[in-house]
Amino acid sequence: MKGATDPPIVSVVGFSGAGKTTLLEKLIHELADRGYRVGSIKHDVHGFEMDKPGKDSWRHKHAGASTTVLSSPHQIGMVMDVDHDHDPDELKKFFRNVDIILTEGYKQGDKPKLEVFRHGVHEEPLCRNDDRLIALISDTHVELGVPHFLLNDIKGIADFLISNFNLVPGVGHRERGHAGVPLNFEPCQMTG
Hints:
Elements: E1 9-13, H1 20-33, E2 38-42, H2 56-63, E3 67-71, E4 76-80, H3 88-91, E5 100-104, E6 113-117, E7 133-138, E8 148-150, H4 154-164, H5 171-175
Parallel strand pairs: 1-5, 1-6, 2-5, 6-7, 7-8
Antiparallel strand pairs: 3-4
């Protein structure tokens, strides 16, 4: 069950080359400039290597550590072996100080979706028949029965999210007790 302080999770989806990463980068910047704390999840079905070969943390991981945490005074990073592909609801426990979580990917997921669509890249929108689509962001008008934004209307998209999810800047981190204090991680288990 969704808790009172759980941030909304919105997935930005679309075909490869549509501009999802660029849109997310601009949208995160716009929301952050307005005082919102934004979390992001990049879904990669192909796997990834976050660390650099030869670095100490890479060596720890490749020696057999199931979880490796990189820690500095300003950032924390973690690489953990998992037994399945985790959905945003399973990952939200890592976001205790945000007002909204934006994901890139999870096109098959059950979260509200913003689709980025470029007519020159693909003929039809990915989410034409998806009832979780809440807005289309594109370079051409396509009638799907949801609000439509041009690719460069970042302020309009931000306004839409703020209104649609009743966002208030900083509510997430104040309600969770993290207004500028270090984040305290609690042990968790990532199992299926």
